[in-house]
Amino acid sequence: MERRLGDKLTAEGRRRRILDAGLECFSRKGFRGTTTKEIAEAAGCSEATIFQHFASKAALYGAVLEAKTEVEEILTKAADAAARKDDAGVLRAIGIGYLTRTEHDSSLMRLFIYSALEGNERAGRFFRSRVTRVHEFLSSYLQERITEGVFRPVDPLVTARACVGMVVYYLLLHEIFGVKRPPDISSEQVIDTFVTLFLEGITERGGSGQEVRRASTPSPAPLHHRGRGGG
After folding, report:
1. pLDDT tens sequence across 15-42
2. For the segment 105-120, what is each residue's pLDDT rounded down to a tens digit?
3. Which CATH superfamily is domain 69-225 in?
4. Protein fold of 11-67
5. What pTM was computed for the model?
6. CA 227 to CA 195: how far, in whole Å?
7. Which residues fall within 8 angstroms of residue 178, CB to CB, at 6 or more apart?
């Protein structure tokens, strides 16, 4: 029997609730292991209600991916920093964007892991398109700064992937594998540490060092004083 959502929910509100329930269920059991009955129970509606909004389970899965994998906000903030040539700001915008979003809800990361194991091509396309946009943006910015002589002549795409990879690995450890987090370190301080280490590695010696210094200015975390004298 359908558990009524009540007249307070609009059709769009009901659709959003189904999408949220779909993400939760798909992230726990994958596409193949999840039934529309389970999603309906999680959303507090009937299967018939689901099919009023989505033609099939595959259509619902695609809608979940479409709704939950946007990177516009991350790229907008990174582009603002890039326009100012704020290297640390670019990296921080991307790092904080990924970190806070996944710490708030790790379901999407779990869903993509399932999709990779299942070989789900639809999810694979969404993942690649979103991730590729971030990698291409960062790679282009790094190449620009390499040309200007600020960064060492490294492969910009490999370097962009390495930068994002630090954050992704940190999230895998703590959000997926349940490794205990370092005590008394905020998300911002974690990203600040990554940014400093990364810029220390790719900045040309004898060139402008202000990008490295910027990475440690926002928050006086204890970690920052274990490196080069807090600078």
Report:
1. 999 999 999 999 999 999 999 999 999 9
2. 999 999 989 988 998 8
3. Tetracycline Repressor, domain 2 (1.10.357.10)
4. Arc Repressor Mutant, subunit A (1.10.10)
5. 0.79
6. 13
7. none
